[in-house]
TrEMBL record:
InterPro entries: Mab-21_HhH/H2TH-like (IPR046906)
A Gene Ontology molecular function term of the record: 2',3'-cyclic GMP-AMP synthase activity
GO terms classed as biological process: activation of innate immune response; cellular response to exogenous dsRNA; DNA damage response; negative regulation of double-strand break repair via homologous recombination; paracrine signaling; positive regulation of defense response to virus by host; positive regulation of type I interferon production
Organism whose genome encodes this protein: Hucho hucho
Name the UniProt record assigns to this protein: Mab-21-like HhH/H2TH-like domain-containing protein
Amino acid sequence: FPFIHGCLSPAESWRISFSHIEKELIKTHGNKRTCCESSATKCCRKQCFKLLKCLIEGLKKRYPQELDALCSYLGKTVFLHTLSIRAQDSLWTRHHLPACFMHLLGALEGHGRSGLLPHFFVPTSNLFAAPTFPRKALVFLTEALEEQRRQGLPLLMPPAPAPHWQYTPPVTPSHPLSYSRLMLSSLLLSSHPKLLR
């Protein structure tokens, strides 16, 4: 996290941690006391945040060198800014999850395009400022996010299940199995699907 302007050198400075208050903001995120309490209507805020974290992790795995500066804290900062702008609980109902996540993704893209992501608690500190987040990496991030959005967010898709494997021995004149025995074994296998697994 960049040092605040006018501070001493990094070796002579202390890092300020906001982790406790960030956790509290995420935990008590609603503008009404009833949001996400045990008997209340649940919202989709935390799911959106988790999806954004998964997308960031996926991008880092796919592009480890290009997005070395990318971290989940940047996603958390975008999320906190979005919570402060979209405070009404009605904007975060569970059936709005896709739209809410796309809004959050759009916010991250917008901050990337502008090159400005103010720290939530120290707004004079830009988390997208160089050298902490190089301009080349920022352009790459914005393009990668746009590509994910255009392609339907493939990094968030579950992997396709592996097809069932079935061994079919080759039918050749020299093979010991005759054609009729091969057909009989195929018929038996197809009538017992557990054998195919």
